[in-house]
Amino acid sequence: MKTTFLTFAIRLTPILAQAGGGTTLTQGTSSALGIVMLIGFLFGTICVISGGFAIRRGDTDSGKLSIVGGLIIAGAPVIVKALFVAFGIGTSTVDVGTFQ
């Protein structure tokens, strides 16, 4: 049993070594949210393009819904930032631009 725990601890040590890179929780959260924003933007762009192809095929209802949904998904960080500024919480973790 002791050798199993020791082997597990040795395998876990490199993973734990990556965690102490001097980053704060805010910096880690900002990086994670940046990745989520990038994935959302790409997915939203794909939805808009597929909506255009659906309209081209003749399925206008599905195409319009896909375009609107894609715009909301791709623009979600800007929408949330605008709401933060509107309610007086302008210092969010991820900065997507300035609103006045």
Structural class: mainly alpha
Secondary structure tally, helices: 4
State the total count of DSSP E strands.
Answer: 0
Q: Give the mean pLDDT.
A: 76
Which sheet architecture does the biggest sheet show?
none
Report how far apart the termini are. 62 Å
Dominant shape = flat
Radius of gyration: 21 Å
Helix content: over 70%
Instruction: Give the low-pLDDT segments.
Output: none
Q: In what range is the share of β-strand residues?
A: under 5%
Secondary-structure element series: HHHH
Characterize the structure shown.
- The chain has 100 residues and is an all-alpha fold.
- The protein has a domain at 26-92.
- Helices cover 77% and strands 0% of the residues.
- The protein contains 4 helices and no strands.
- It has helices at 2-19, 25-57, 60-74, 76-86.
- α2 (25-57) runs antiparallel to α3.
- The termini are far apart.
- The model has no long low-confidence stretch (mean pLDDT 76).
How would you summarize what this structure contains?
With 100 residues, this protein is an all-alpha fold. It has helices at residues 2-19, 25-57, 60-74, 76-86. The chain is flat.
Q: How would you describe this structure in keywords?
A:
mainly alpha; 100 residues; 4 helices
Write the layout of secondary structure elements.
Blueprint: H1 2-19, H2 25-57, H3 60-74, H4 76-86
Helix pairs in contact: 2-3
